[in-house]
Write a structure and sequence with these properties.
single chain, mainly alpha, about 0% strand
C-alpha cells in the first residue's frame, strides 16, 4: 500500500465515523462516503479496518496502563499485581476516546466471521492482560472470560451514565455551571 492509499483509507475511515456519529448503532455509512468502495472494496473490509483502529487505540491504552515487565515500575498501574483495574481503566479510556468507533463495532458485531475473529482476539487480549486467564488456556474459554469481563465493564459504565442522568442535583449543577 502506498502512502496515498494509506491517507485515502484514513480519510474514508474518518468520514465514516463522522457520519456514524448521528446514529452509531445504525447502518454502516459505506455507500454514502465517497471513495469507500474504492478504498476498501466491501463493508467487511471497512469493518476490519475499523476493528484494527479500535485495537490500536485499546492496545495503546493497555500499554500505558499495564506496560511490560521491563518498565513496570515507572508506569501508572505497572506495579499492580492485579491488572484488572488497570485494564478496566484502559478500556474505559479507549471508549471515551473513540465512542463512535466502539458503538459502530458493537452495532455490526456478528455480521462477518473475519470481524468476529478480530473481536474475539481483542477479548482474549483483555482477559490475559487483566490476569483473568492464561495464554495457554483453551481459546474458547479465554474468549468467554474476556466477554464476561467486557460485559461487566459495559454494565458498570451504563450504570454510571444512568445514575448521572437520574441525579437531579447533578443536572441542576450542569445547567448552572455555564452561567457561573
Amino acid at each position: 500500500m502506498s502512502w496515498n492509499d494509506f491517507y485515502r483509507r484514513r480519510d474514508v475511515i474518518d468520514a465514516v465515523l463522522r457520519r456514524a456519529e448521528r446514529d452509531p448503532h445504525g447502518a454502516l455509512p459505506f455507500a454514502e462516503v465517497a471513495g469507500a468502495r474504492e478504498a476498501f472494496g466491501s463493508e467487511e473490509n471497512l469493518l476490519l479496518a475499523l476493528q484494527y483502529k479500535w485495537t490500536q487505540v485499546l492496545s495503546g491504552r493497555l500499554r500505558s496502563e499495564v506496560a511490560g515487565p521491563e518498565d513496570a515500575d515507572g508506569v501508572p498501574g505497572g506495579g499492580e499485581r492485579d491488572h484488572v483495574d488497570a485494564v478496566s481503566r484502559a478500556w474505559r479510556a479507549a471508549v471515551r476516546e473513540q465512542p463512535t468507533l466502539r458503538a459502530v463495532l458493537e452495532a455490526h458485531a456478528g455480521r462477518y466471521a473475519s470481524t468476529d475473529n478480530a473481536h474475539e482476539a481483542e477479548l482474549r487480549m483483555l482477559a490475559v492482560t487483566a490476569g483473568l486467564a492464561e495464554p495457554n488456556e483453551p481459546r474458547a474459554e479465554v474468549t468467554r472470560i474476556g466477554q464476561a469481563f467486557v460485559a461487566l465493564l459495559e454494565a458498570r459504565a451504563g450504570s454510571r451514565t444512568r445514575s448521572r442522568r437520574a441525579n437531579p442535583v447533578g443536572q441542576l449543577l450542569r445547567r448552572l455551571a455555564p452561567t457561573a
